[in-house]
Structure formats: structure tokens, C-alpha cells
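Annex B.
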Amino acid sequence: MSRTDEGPLDRPIVVENLRYAYGGRVIHDGLSFSVERGRIVGLLGKNGVGKTTLIKLLMGFLAPLSGACRVLGEPSHALPAQAKRRIGLVFEGHLAYDFLSIEATERFLSPWYPRWRREVFHDFMDRLGLPPQHLIRNMSEGQRSQVVLAAVLAQDPDLLILDDYTMGLDAGYRRLFLDHLVHHARAGNKTVFVTSHVVQDMERLVDDVILLRRGSPAYLGPLNHFMRDFRRFRLVAPDADLRAGGTLHTVEREADGTWSIYAFHSAEAVGATLRGAGIDPAHLSEVPMTLEDAFVGYTGSY
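ABC transporter ATP-binding protein: predicted C-alpha cells.
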């Protein structure tokens, strides 16, 4: 019996020294991280840093040039059928079979998943207010998204991989799905790996974050540790010429002429760096921030 026939592994996702490139462009070089069972992990980064490429690698749509990428204990590019049945995937849009109706979608999918939860699928579908015979192709984008997400949760997967689950959902349904997602993960000790452009959702959803930044090692850690250790400061020094480096992770000139400084260091350490550069830190103050603020500060604004 292979390890994928056993219960969920302690680390459902393990990436070690991963390298991948498109042509001559290196996307990931030496990327390493692991995801612990039962955690909800958010993958964040600007467009073009390799988030979707990493999802494709995890699902076996791409193979690493070197290094290892293992999912449920198996090489991601050679997942056996029994492992795939334990993975729920939302990737680049909607159901491929949009010619099916709501009821036909369930009839088609449910035999593939031994733990299919009919009540979960029907709970979500009842909220649509559409007859079971309604075709997927005749739905709005948001309605199609609801069918996709309902089908994924009904599979009762041990590992959920969601590549931007928002897909046209309004705020109310997005909140409903997040509540169900958290319940699914907590109640069954499931693991969730998620990307989203709605960073504020991540703040109330995830346990851990992976932050991708071009040209820098990935950050991986508990979200509360990141929000505790990464800090934002405001500096009133209109004539200063600031550059990132050393203790200053990122610096941004704001529209009002002040500076935003982001750092993994205390106000005292940042102040010492400023003094060393001949800048008076008398008007340096720490500013509270959301995860969206921290994301922009960590990755840099456009």
C-alpha cells in the first residue's frame, strides 16, 4: 500500500530546492517550503512572480527542472489516481463541462469521490435559486463560481488548492464560502493552499503566508508572526533621499511628501540607520497596518 492510501501526511506539500524556468526566464530558483497538515496557507505575491506556475507544479501540470515537489507524499508530476481523489482543485476558472446542468454535474462528479458530501453540494446550490436542470453555460460568472466551489467542498478533500477562488463572487457569497472553507479545514484537520488577489480575505482566513518577491528568497511563516515582526514607519523628512537596503526593507515616497519605511527591525534600529545616512529621525513614527499594507510594503508598490 502506498503512502497515499494512508491517512493524511503530516506535511501534505513539500517543496525542496525547486527550480523552474520558461525558456531563458527563471521563475523559481531554489524555492523550498513545506506545509503542515491542518494549516491554511496563503500564497501572496505580485503578478508575474510565479504563483500560478507554482500551482501548476503542485498539480503536476508542469514538472520541475530540478529539485523536488511532493504532494501527499508523491512526486507532484506523477500523482496516482488515489492521491488525486484526495485533492480539491480550483484552477483558472470554472468547470470544464459547462454543457452540464446542476444535477448532471453532481451525477458526473460524485462517483469519482468516495467521500462525496451531497448535503454540502445541495446547500450551496439551493442558495442559487435555480432549478436543478439549469445549464452551467447559462449562468453568470459568479453563479458558475458557486457551482465550482460547491463541487470542490463536496469532494471532502484532504488537501484543497485554490488558485484565486474569488472568480466573480460578490462580497456576501465570498464571505459565505470563506466561512465554509474554514469550517471544512478546522473540523476535519484538512489542509488548504490558496492564492487570491483579495488580500484582505487572507487576513481573516490563513494561518501561514508564503510571500514571493522577485529576486529575493520567499518568506514563509505564521501570519501573526509576519504582522508582528514586519513594521511600517512614517518619516517626515521632505528633503531626504532614502534608499532601501540594510535594515530598510522597502521605502516609498508618499503623495504628501512623507516617507513610508518598511522593515523587520525596531524603531531604534531604523532610526540608527537613518542617522548613519545623515537623516534626522526625530519625526519617525510607527504606523499600524493591515495585511494589504504589509503586502505592498514587502513586495513594493508598482
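The CA atoms of residues 124 and 146 lie 7 Å apart. DSSP finds ten helices and 14 strands in the chain. Further annotation is deferred to the next reporting cycle.
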